[in-house]
Amino acid sequence: MKRYMMNDLIFAEQSQRFKVYIPGYLLIEIQKQCILAYPNETGGILAGKYSRELDCAYISELLKAPPGSKSGRTWFLRGIKGIKKKLDRLWNKKTYYLGEWHYHPDNSSTLSNQDIKQMFSISNNPNYKCPEPILFIVGGKQNSWEYSVYVFPQCEKYIHLNLVELHS
Description:
Mean pLDDT: 92
Shape: globular
CATH architecture: 3-Layer(aba) Sandwich
InterPro entries: JAB_dom_prok (IPR028090)
Largest sheet: 8 strands, mixed, barrel
Protein name: JAB domain-containing protein
GO molecular function: metal ion binding; metallopeptidase activity
Radius of gyration: 15 Å
Domain JAB: 28-143
CATH class: Alpha Beta
Number of domains: 1
Strand content: 35-45%
Helix content: 10-25%
Keywords: Hydrolase, Metal-binding, Metalloprotease, Protease, Zinc
Order of helices and strands: EEHEEEEHEHEEE
């Protein structure tokens, strides 16, 4: 049985078909990246593993914005420099590309039309080897963070996952 810590986050679809687990230490790292980028957007890649039942994605690695990334107050374009090498190294450790994360400074964590287009493009691109990519969006700013998680199955509407309350 997986042991959860107090500041870990779990998001789940109502039917429990999709679940995403984000450990607290990675959440802190994402928040640091957001603070450093403020007032601009930032983002990167989520990597990890799936449960044996393939119903839960366990995020274990965070790749921050690589060199060549560009951003402004309301947009982010993730660069690609060095990404393939990092993902190949993770793949050899049986840690896989699971999706993307990015930050909406001073705004909600609701996805945009551009986010939807980008994620369905990833979902349908065989080079990513990820037919159901995850998008983790951080909104707000330091001391008032907001989080949303979405899954993008191929040829389906995206799915918004809800935060699950953890009880110790």
